[in-house]
Amino acid sequence: MENVFTKAIVRPPAHNFADGLTTVDLGIPQIELAMQQWEAYCAALQTCGLTLTRLEADPTHPDSTFVEDTAVITLHQAILTRPGAESRAGEVAAIAEVVRGFYPEAVSITAPGELDGGDICEAGKHFFLGISHRTNVEGARQLAEHLAREGYTASCVDITGMTSILHLKSGISYIGDNTLVVMDEMAEWPEFAGYDLLRVSAAESYGANCVRVNDRVLVAEGFPNLETELVRRGFDPLVLDMSEFRKMDGGLSCLSLRFWH
Asked: Each residue of 103-123: b (16+ CB within 10 Å) or e?
């Protein structure tokens, strides 16, 4: 393992979760089922050895359960983001004090930079920075500067021409051991040369958003080919039902801020 996570910040979906933003048409999420799935997700993180900081639901911001978008956390620092969707701007202020409780020197992405944490994929000492409809070039530039101070390299991946994903990490996930899970649509992109690619077919593309948490790989339920390939390559998948979060453009990585502090 390259780093061992010890903590995570999570926030449950609010009663008006269905009022959040989405680009897909998969139906209206059922809040009771979403809560059950969220609790199972939290239990999975604890199974992987993490101590959780559970925040209160925030109905002021219906998307606020997707805490990953509010910060980028590395081994030694936290960078508070500046979400590209206006309705999500207050989510960072709502979580900043909690993040600074662990990282007092946390810095911030500032205007005109825009950046969602879901566009940022850490791959060891390198970061892929997604340029999307939620993260602009200036936001990525600021983040790259903050990361460089810690010795990380970074490169931009432009997904603005894609209609199949909202954030970069909807299409790629780094799961350690030089392995990058990547949806087939992006598998030939030169940005990912040099990694061992685990290609995910179009039919299972939602499964590309998986999360390495210590000895396990969290993976969404319903993608048997991906699960089989993870096992074949020596990974240990932990399968979770994400149906209600998928309806709101959410994936496994979105639901927590994971760190080592």
From this structure: beebebbeeebbbbbbbbbbb
